[in-house]
């Protein structure tokens, strides 16, 4: 027997959870299909960033502002559930050239209405007393925020279920139901499910799901590591990172890239990142990456040289070649929608993405134009050579097992 709802959301990570929440709140009947357990992918292997400070002018920054307004507005009454915190971000420059570039970057953001303040060396040390003596200045972004990502995904799913959504776990999608060219549902080992709209919110598995539906999108894995220190007295008070981080976020280089990102947590531990590298779904622990992350962090906060690392973890960011997520309906497979490819910004952009999908499905004008994120843009010649997901032997979301969210 086929179970029917208005919307099927494939994937119960942060993007799928937010989509289910806003769609259920809009009055749709929603079924969330998850191959394993909720928040078990990248949503459980990241820092929970909601950053405006690392976004250049353009569609992603516009989506970030929209999403941040939701985290701090419509979702604010629930913020305590996922430890929402406006901790502020600080981008540090230790070279005159970096300082000049940082000022130009911040000035362009201010023209878009982003709140940012220039800090000279003394003002920087007022904000972060333990910063390196080599730091010449910084840009301070009071809107940069944080959530606990697993709590955010889990509670958004709970709130969606309170609004009537159904969650089906351990149900990998093995195929799609069709009526002519139109996608009308999904097949799983737990039965068939039909809906007027199916949303592909599967993070780094999105390419495989798209391919299974005949509408591939070039969402590829980009591995990243995070280190966690022993508990300390408060030593780092904001999210602090080096100016080079912005360049790494926007790079398409497949090789290892690392720049220091350091922040304290309410528990007293310090999270240290970050690295990026395209190595497919290779989950091998990279000593080189960890060593580079540690060296960069010590250069930013010298006291870390005497601090013990308790553990490290890593995940795969869902990366798109043009650094924009894939959001919206796919005309190549009517009935199929995508909400994936957010790379390291997925936690922050989740609220905005879920709201946009719900608005569009309801026939409303989306709060941010969807055109820059349209799924078919890669089929127009931009993404040739990137259209196939890299193989992941552990990924049962597709019948071909041919693909597998940020750290």
Short description:
The chain has 407 residues and is α/β, with parallel strands linked by helices. It contains 9 helices and 18 strands.
Radius of gyration, CA atoms, in whole angstroms: 21 Å
Strand content: 25-35%
The residue ranges in which pLDDT falls below 50 over 5 or more consecutive positions are: 382-407
Structural class estimated from helices and strands: alpha/beta
N- to C-terminal separation?
40 Å
Output the helix-strand order: EHEEHEHEHEEHEEEEHEEHEEHEEEH
State the major sheet.
Answer: 8 strands, mixed
Mean pLDDT: 90
What is the number of beta strands?
A: 18
Number of helices: 9
Q: Helical residue percent?
A: 25-40%
Q: In one word, what is the shape?
A: globular
Task: Give the topology.
Blueprint: E1 3-10, H1 14-25, E2 30-33, E3 49-50, H2 59-72, E4 89-93, H3 96-111, E5 117-120, H4 121-127, E6 137-141, E7 145-146, H5 149-162, E8 166-168, E9 175-179, E10 182-188, E11 191-200, H6 206-212, E12 220-229, E13 239-242, H7 244-249, E14 257-264, E15 270-276, H8 287-300, E16 309-319, E17 326-329, E18 336-340, H9 346-361
Parallel strand pairs: 1-2, 1-11, 2-8, 4-13, 11-18
Antiparallel strand pairs: 3-7, 4-6, 5-6, 9-10, 10-11, 12-15, 12-16, 13-14, 14-15, 17-18
Helix pairs in contact: 1-5, 1-9, 2-9
């Amino acid at each position: 027997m086929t179970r029917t709802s208005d919307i099927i959301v494939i994937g119960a990570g942060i993007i799928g959870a937010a989509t289910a929440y806003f769609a259920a709140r809009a009055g749709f009947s929603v079924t969330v299909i998850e191959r394993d357990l909720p928040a078990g992918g990248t949503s459980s292997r990241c820092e929970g960033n909601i950053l405006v400070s690392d976004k250049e002018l353009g569609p992603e920054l516009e989506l970030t502002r929209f999403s941040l307004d939701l985290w701090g507005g419509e979702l604010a009454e629930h913020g305590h559930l996922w430890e929402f915190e406006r901790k502020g971000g600080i981008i540090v420059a230790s070279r005159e050239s970096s300082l000049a570039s940082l000022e130009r970057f911040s000035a362009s953001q201010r023209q878009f209405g982003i709140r940012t303040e220039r800090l000279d060396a003394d003002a920087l040390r007022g904000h972060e007393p333990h910063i390196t003596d080599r730091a010449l200045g910084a840009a301070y972004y009071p809107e940069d925020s944080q959530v606990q990502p697993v709590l955010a995904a889990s509670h958004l799913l709970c709130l969606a279920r309170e609004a009537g959504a159904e969650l089906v776990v351990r149900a990998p999608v093995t195929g799609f139901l069709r009526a002519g060219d139109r996608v009308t549902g999904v097949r799983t080992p737990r039965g068939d499910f039909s809906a007027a709209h199916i949303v592909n919110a599967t993070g780094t598995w999105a390419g495989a799901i798209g391919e299974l539906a005949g509408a591939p999108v070039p969402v590829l894995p980009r591995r990243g590591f995070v280190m966690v220190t022993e508990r300390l007295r408060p030593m780092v008070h904001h999210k602090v990172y080096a100016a080079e981080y912005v360049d790494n976020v926007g790079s398409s280089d497949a090789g290892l890239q690392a720049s220091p990102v350091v922040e304290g947590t309410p528990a007293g531990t310090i999270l240290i990142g970050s690295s990026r590298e395209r190595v497919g779904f290779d989950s091998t622990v990279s000593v080189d990456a960890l060593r580079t992350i540690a060296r960069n962090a010590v250069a930013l906060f010298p006291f870390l040289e005497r601090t013990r690392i308790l553990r490290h973890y890593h995940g795969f960011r869902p990366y798109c070649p043009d650094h924009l997520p894939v959001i919206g309906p796919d005309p190549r497979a009517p009935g199929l929608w995508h909400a994936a490819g957010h790379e390291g910004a997925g936690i922050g952009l989740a609220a905005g993405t879920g709201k946009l999908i719900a608005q569009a499905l309801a026939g409303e004008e989306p709060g941010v134009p969807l055109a820059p994120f349209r799924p078919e843009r890669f089929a127009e010649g931009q993404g040739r050579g990137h259209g196939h997901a890299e193989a992941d032997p552990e990924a049962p979301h597709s019948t071909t097992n041919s693909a597998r969210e940020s750290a």
